[in-house]
């Protein structure tokens, strides 16, 4: 029988990987809290309609990528492919409109059935923030600034570029959509199969196409900025001015779009050239129409999401965790005493490692393997005198110390 393997597109987070993940999550949560974002979690599965309503029945995520099943009660359930819809559902389910605006930070696993590639798995992990209930362009500025600050804390910002665009309001978007349909209809025979399918139901998604034939047509396609009304122009101008005022650079990308109708105004991505074809590190925008599409009251929202796997590949190496103290008892009586001493040290905040057997050589080898900072050695002679030997494993220096008060000696500084 072949050795058991993880399901394709999934990945075990062993301690080193998990340390890098925690490095991303902890730093992102810490920075976002400075902006007023509080950590929250939603279930990893929702009723399927939560995502069908928000992502659209004909989107690639819904038709090809969602993990959907019928549970024992006959309900259709989907593992969350993204978390904005879940956060918005939680906002409505818990009656939080009276507390708006609210700021949330999240981090956790998402699920999509797609071809695994660098930085993209079938079970992947994201962090994100959502600012719900604020229609002003200053909210867009804050959300982008928070994202930039997190990337800076992780040592990534300098290797990314912020791409920025506006999707306008509903009126501007409708006019632009009609212009795209007219333009691409004149070139329908030259479009890829996917783009022909998107032509009438989601023409903005054609601008995302990676097909070479489509890319040539996109060069001469209408540009969104030509169809923006006065209100949309002023909203975008305020966002740009705000980013200029706080020193966040950006590049205008008129082809940066969001295909779903509930997106409006600001769309943005932090991109990098260090991850091959997967250039987006953090992506977001304004989604004022989402709540209403889900059956709730019209409620503005803006946010972003970022893949933890990609961030952990780019982030500066996290500092190593606390190094343990290795306990090395020699003899049965010393072993019993060390068990009690180990608990005393742990309660004092000292990380302890103690092998469950072996001679002095094997135990010291174990101490090196776990990168212990010191070894505390206890034999029959030390036990009789109430002392221990403490060996600094970096310098080799060894001293004798009373067993009483050992916790205070070894405890990390507060």
UniProtKB/TrEMBL annotation:
Top-level EC class as recorded in UniProt: ligase
Leader sequence segment: none
Swiss-Prot/TrEMBL keywords: Aminoacyl-tRNA synthetase, ATP-binding, Cytoplasm, Ligase, Nucleotide-binding, Protein biosynthesis
Subcellular location: Cytoplasm
InterPro entries associated with the record: aa-tRNA-synth_II, aa-tRNA-synth_II/BPL/LPL, Anticodon-bd, Anticodon-bd_dom_sf, His-tRNA-ligase, HisRS-like_core, HisRS/HisZ, HisRS_anticodon
GO-annotated biological processes: histidyl-tRNA aminoacylation
Recorded GO MF terms: ATP binding; histidine-tRNA ligase activity
EC code(s) of this entry: 6.1.1.21
GO CC entries: cytoplasm
Keyword Transferase: no
Family: Belongs to the class-II aminoacyl-tRNA synthetase family.
Subunit and partners: Homodimer.
Name recorded for this polypeptide: Histidine--tRNA ligase
Natural source organism: Hwanghaeella grinnelliae
